[in-house]
Amino acid sequence: MQLGAGSQPAGGAVAIGENSKAIARSSVVIGSNSTATINGATTTTGVATNLGASVVIGANNYSNGNNNVAIGNRSYTNGNAALAIGRESSATSDFALSLGTVSAATGIKSTSIGHSSVSSGNNSIAIGSSQGAGRDWSNNGTTSSGSNSIAVGTSAKANAADTIVIGQAANASTLATNAMVIGKDAQAIGQNNISFGVGAKTGNVVSSVTDALPLAGGSQIAIGTGAVTDTAGSIAIGYNALTGLNNNFGLALGGYAQATGNSAVSIGRRSESTGQNSTAVGGRETKATAGGATAVGSNVQATGFESLAIGAGKGDGTSVTSTISSGKQSVSVGANSKATNTSAVAVGTNANSTGENAIAIGTGSQATAKDTISIGTGNVVTGQGSGAIGDPTTINGTGTYSVGNNNGTIDALNSGAFGNDNTITGALNSVRIVGNKNTVTANSVSVMGNNSTVSGTSGISIGNQNIVSGQSAIAIGEIAQSKGLQSFAAGYDASASGQDGLALGSATDASGLSSTAVGRAAWALTDYATALGAETTADALNATAIGSFAKATKENSVALGASSTTATDATQQTSATINGLTYGTFAGQVTDPGMQISVGSVGAERQIKNVGSGEISATSTDAINGSQLYATNAVLGNISNSIETTLGGNATLNSDGSISMTDIGGTGQNTIHNAILASRTEV
């Protein structure tokens, strides 16, 4: 069928319009200067060719091939089953579809929809229009040049195989195989990358305006407005999220999150991980800036190598003070906690560890010197090598420890307080306390117990409510007191107030110099006195009382035995007169009334048993036992018996040792003298 001047239809073809040509069989040409031709045929105007059955509608169109459709002004098809609709549209490969003004589908089975859109890759799809005017498809229009690629959006470009690009001016570079780009101005430069969001970028973004090779830039994901990834394995998700320039395997999740260190992880709004293998998790500018550093929480900073910071700022809504871990391998956990030195540890709200190897655990705890430990609420440790465990205690001394609560401020060196409410006054040295509410004001002191006070240097208190005021003194028990130099008191309410005094037993009292009191309520009240036994009393210089209730009350006296006393005076004995006979002079004269040993008391005398035989001489002061007296009396008895025998007659030895006789020699006289006189008279 032919209609129009100069039209040329082939067999079974239709040509309608001025100079229209339907050269291919069964083709339809409608429009002036349009052509549908058989492959290899030539025409002088627009073309639509191949083996036939093509449709060309519009002025100056051209179709070359089988089953093609070209509709519009200057549209162009070349291939089999190609479709071009729109002014200056073209579909130049088999099964290509081009729909839109100046659109082009040049790849096999490609689809191009929109003004100036281009689908040049096989099986590619380009949907969208250009941002500018003219026919510069590569720069202005939507383009899908990679095989199996998809580009959707004004000036979107899918330039690599198997890419998906959706969004105005979104771009997948020629190196971005298998990439996915979604969002206005989003970019993907490396293979397997994902860019999702307005301005999201993956790949070597510094060189993103060209197709330079990204630095190992594959397998990246950028999701969110302004999200950017730069190197292999990186992921950026969130508004303006960024993974590190020239660093691999970064992960940034959150608005303004930045993971710019190699293998860094940043999760949370404005979080930053700039160190290699660093991790930042949280918001309000949480930062991990050193290698291996980890920061977790709101407004947290881990700036030391391999440091750990977990917590937040003060949380009052206005403070920018943050949890900080700036020391190498330091750890900071808790709101506003800080670990600022090598291997420092701070755990708890407002905890502060500034010393090397220091540990601060608890709300407001502080460890500010090297090798210090502060564990508990409000503890402060400033002395090197010192520690505090418990509630508020301040340690300023070096090498000093406190374990317990409310031990105040300790300035002492090389000391320790273990318990509660203890007080160590001043810059002392070598103090040890175990117990509660004790007070120490002297050096080199040891306390074990409660409510005791030690003010003497090198003093020791063991027990409760003791008082040690003497230097090198010791008190053991309860309410025990050692007030004398080098004194010792042990027992309930024992007291040693004299220098070198010794009090052992409840209620004992050794108040004299070098006095000794041993036993319940034993009292040695004067210098060098000794009281041994329950309720004994030695109350004179050098007095000694031994035995329960014994009392030695004279100087140098000895009360030996229970209830013994020294109530009477010792006397000087130089001789003795018995029945007119004087014996003496005796050796060993006493010089003082107290020079005595009493083994009893008036009405409660006792024998001395098992006394060894003493020396019998003019100078001996030994005690004489019963056997010695017996031997002496035996001799005297023999003498008396001998005299009785010698006298004869009725001479009699009386029991008191005297001899009596009468009528001596039959003289009637009772004395030898008178008997002799009487015998002379008779002669």
From TrEMBL:
GO CC field: outer membrane
Top-level taxonomic group: Bacteria
Trimeric autotransporter adhesin YadA-like head domain ranges (all copies): 12-34, 105-129, 145-168, 221-241, 259-283, 326-351, 354-378, 469-494, 510-535, 538-564
CDD domains given in the database record: LbR_YadA-like (cd12820)
Ranges where the record places region Disordered: 267-286
Name recorded for this polypeptide: Trimeric autotransporter adhesin YadA-like head domain-containing protein
